[in-house]
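Much of the work behind modern protein science is quiet bookkeeping, done one molecule at a time. The protein below has been through that process, and both of its lines are reproduced in full.
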Amino acid sequence: KEDEENLHLVEDLKNLPDLNKAALIESLMTRYYDDSIYTFTGDILIAVNPFKRIKGLYESKVMNKYLDSSPGDKLSPHAYGIAHNAYQSMLEYSGRNQSVLVSGESGAGKTETTKIVMNYLTHISARNSSGDSSDISQAVLQSNPLLEAFGNAKTVRNDNSSRFGKLIQMQFEPHANNPELIAAKIDTYLLEKARITHQMNNE
């Protein structure tokens, strides 16, 4: 009984006493009802769409915990943490390209998670920048509604379901102690044409 009550405290699924499918689902569900929508499984971050706003989850003081963190600091699972690790790895490996893969089924929150990651990278870059990096990121973020107008659709599961995949490249000034965001590029590389040729029932 005590183990069940403490499932919401397990921030990394690999630390569960019994690592099986039932335990994983139970832990994620318990954390979900506790408004803890982020959970690690090793180096992978699982995000469960809460379908509501969670107060304080993305406020400045939460972001600052990650911005001010040092290697080895133990922080709660968050999309900010994934973005921070990618940026720090870029520094550690002398500008080597880093990738953040956001995947999930329809309505999982991929688009919103991508925006959260980009917002964090903008803030960490802007700390030692001329200010142009924020404008660049905002331009990329604000282009999303235009792309969605051509490639999104209302489905029975999601009112704004993406019908395309996109690769967003955020380019930082190389060989700098504090790389500054200098450019960004969106490649729309997959448009699911087969799914927009006709409507299913209730869509």
About this structure: The mean pLDDT is 83. Strands lie at 38-41, 44-47, 152-153, 161-162, 164-172, 181-191. The first strand starts at residue 38 and ends at 41.
